[in-house]
Amino acid sequence: MRSPVSGAARWAGALVLAVIVMVAVFNSGSTADGVAVDQQAGATATKRTEFGPLTGSDVDLLVKVRQAGLWETPTGQQMEQRATNGVVRDVGRRIAAEHIELDAIVRRTADQLGATLPSQPSAQQQGWMAEISAQNGAEYDRTAVNLLRQAHGKVLPVIAQVRSGTRNELVRDFATTAAQFVTRHHEYLESTGLVDFEALPEPPAPAAAPASAASAAAGTGGAAPVLTANGGTAAASGGFDGVLTAVREVSLSSWLAAVLAFVAVLGGGALLDMLLRDRTRTTPAGPTPAASYPPQRPFPAPPRPPAPPRIHPARRRPAPQRRPGGPAVFGLLVIGVLALPPLLEGAVSPPPQPSTSAAVAAGFAALDPAPEHVLALVAEKKNEPSDDEKSDDDKDEGKNGDNQNDDNQNDDKAAGDQAEGDDAREALNQALAARQAEQGGAEDRNAENENDDRNGDNNQNGDNQNDKQDGNGQNENDQDENAADDDFPGRENAAPPALGDFADIGEVNQLVSDPTPDANASTGSFVSECGTPDPALRNSDNWIAAPGKVNGAQHMHDYIGSAATDSSTEAGDLLVSETTCELDNRSTFFWPVLRDTSQVGPDDNQDGGGLDGNVGEILEPAQVVMQFLGNPTEPVSPMPQLLRVITGDAKAVTNGPDNVRAQWTCRGFEDRATTQYPLCPQGSRLLRVLDFPSCWDGENLDSEDHRSHMAFADEDSGACPQDTVAVPQLRMILAYDQPGGRNFALDGFPDQQHHPATDHGDFVNGMPDELMDAVVECLNEGLQC
To answer: Which among 781, 764, 500, 759 has a CA at the least distance from the CA of 652?
Structure first.
């Protein structure tokens, strides 16, 4: 008997069932990841970022936290001034300070994600501020505490909801950090004893559908923003576009689960079809088995029927072979179409750059973004300039220099050729050696001139003695000048940088790479907000390397952090000084200034300035980032207070490249660095990046050479040497609006001739223990603070 259902209908049913099961698994997987397809009008589009998909709910969280800081920071500051209760004043101070810190975090996060944040509180939040300001005395305290507590209570569920569902790594880290801040603020406000818990809103019923991020927090006054392809907002999209978005964004585990479910149901359909096939079978011919009953009486044989006509026996036709086609091929085609997007995405997506880890990227993300035309240059694979073009450039440069510069240019050009052969360290070594050899020849010539001068002076001793007796004091002035030369050596070798000290950033091939972190890595990032340098603190002292000596550096330093900066400073002065940093961070950070050599500076005839060969107008850094990073192989431990750390070598021309740590690059070209001055495209800021050692001997705050108590981690693995302790690593990022052409140079000792490899920096830890513990926790927990 044949099945009443045709084979095509059975296959169609199995296929429909497989699709239904696949979609169910698909949706459950995507919902588990926090991005279920929303077919309603309030659904939001999704934007791709390097940290994962960014949904409207993710952006809404950033908006709410930003707006919370915009009204709670001034409210907390007002509470510190107007509250009558001492506890309330202290709570206001804490909330204001921590919201300043959290606001910096949310702004950095939004910059990295390309999200736009509001610049003022919502209308409802402004109403709360007005309501609090209208009160006085004890009523002021009660109103401020309760309104702040209610607002924090509303935003905490939103943070938890986004934290549990987002698939964006950066948003997840931000939500974790924000939850810690908000929870602490709950505790601060409740510690006042003024919170009216009966007036707090009821929590949602367990069976109720979770509220959307747009309606869960107070003060936004509208639905969640909807992202467009360029990161802006647009009307919600649904229908087929929403389905395609979900298909593109679903996780790999959901794809695999859906495909396996589809194949399983399709296989079940094939088995069912096999069972429902035609069950009629022809009984094979053969002897009938003998009956077990007693034999019956014999009957006479029936008459034999006439023989049938002779015919050829019919050949049994072979069963038709099932060709691979039909529903099976269609099912495989559907599977292929469903699996194609993630496979293509993995195939065409460029591999991640070695220097774009989340922690390292967080430091550069704190800078203003590069203009679009600069980013286009970065993306474009420019061809190497031809030899003719290089020759033309060399000719043009030679017209502006003297013979000495031409010699320097040839030496540095040879070094540059080796650097292009992936041997930048050897090239730098040869360039520094060539510079030192030139100085040796100059010193020999100066010695001959000095002997001639001495002979001439001996011939005039009688006249000088008479002048001294007459009270002219000329000989005393000469002695003062000689003493000054002894105190500040090398001035006779001062010279501007060579033309070969500069390199087009587009021709720099030295890429920056970071060790791959392992399972125990501390992958977080902490940025210390300290503003930009105050020119009033600028001087040419260095109380770490030359304590008590005025003009001990023979070049000017920029300072941020502690205001204790001059030669008379002692380490303990930091802990009681004023500071430009937030959160009572009294650390000191300083580095040599950069100058526009086409201008004339005010210190052109002063120590540390023109007298030491440092000429030009000092350039103010447009932005400064003081970032602390973790260790790729292990958690970090706190730095002790007053630990002194230096990086780079201010006398690299004399000492060689062993301690060189200079990294010069341009905004938009952060994946490459050079020890030459980079020539950046118009609109791209010049960047100085200085990485400090991060492996401490565990005992000494300083050492005789100011280096031995600290060590750099291994360049390949990131591991600290044995018998050292991994501590937070300081990274300085200094951004400048570059003057046109080669009209800039680094301040340095005069005999170093402004070589860019002499870039260096100094740091002394003046963080309170509580702040250092918070930095360590941030790094070890993988947060970006």
So the answer is: 759
Within 8 A by CB and 6+ apart from 378, the residues are 370, 668, 669
Tokens 């309501």 map to which residue? 131
Residue-level length of the chain:
785
Please say if the pLDDT value at position 426 is more than 90.
no
Task: Output 307 or 725, whichever has higher pLDDT.
Answer: 725
For residue 597, the SS3 value is coil
36 token code pair: 């279920």
pLDDT-derived band at 354, boundaries 50, 70, 90 = very low
Q: Which two tokens stand for residue 781?
A: 């927990």
Q: Report the alpha-carbon distance of residue 616 to residue 581 in Å, rounded.
A: 29
Query: DSSP for 522-553?
Result: ---EEEE---S--GGG-BS--TTTSTT-TTSS
- Strand 588-592 to strand 760-764: parallel, antiparallel, or no bridges (unpaired)? antiparallel
CATH number of 50-234: 1.20.1260.10
Amino acid 50: pLDDT: 85
CA 745 – CA 598 distance, rounded (Å): 10
SS3 695: strand
Please give the structure tokens belonging to residue 717: 């693995």
Residues 528 and 584 sit within 8 Å (Cβ to Cβ): no
Least confident window among 121-125, 203-207, 522-526, 738-742: 203-207
Cα maximum dimension of the chain: 175
Tell me, what's the pLDDT at 34? 38
746 DSSP β-pair partners: 594
| Whether residue 649 has pLDDT greater than 60 | yes
Q: What is the mean pLDDT of residues 276-287?
A: 51
Distances in whole angstroms, Cα of residue 686 to Cα of each of 628, 672, 677, 760? 21, 13, 9, 16
* pLDDT, mean over the chain: 76
Sign of the dihedral through C-alpha 184, 189, 195, 200: negative
Helix H or strand E segment including 47: strand 46-49
**Numbered ranges of CATH 1.20.1260.10 in the chain:** 50-234
485: confidence class by pLDDT, cuts 50, 70, 90: low
Q: Which residues contact 290 (CB under 8 A, 6 or more apart)?
A: none
3-state helix, strand, coil in the chain (%, to 5): 45, 10, 45
Distance from C-alpha of 180 to C-alpha of 57, rounded to nearest angstrom? 19
Residue range 29-54: mean pLDDT, rounded: 56
Structure tokens at 388: 């003719």
Q: How far is CA 153 from CA 66, 117, 146, 219, 439, in A?
A: 16, 22, 10, 13, 69
Please check whether residue 67 is in contact with residue 219, taking contact to mean a CB–CB distance below 8 angstroms: yes
Backbone angles phi, psi at 219, to 5 degrees: 90, 5
**Phi, psi (deg, nearest 5) at residue 648:** 80, 175
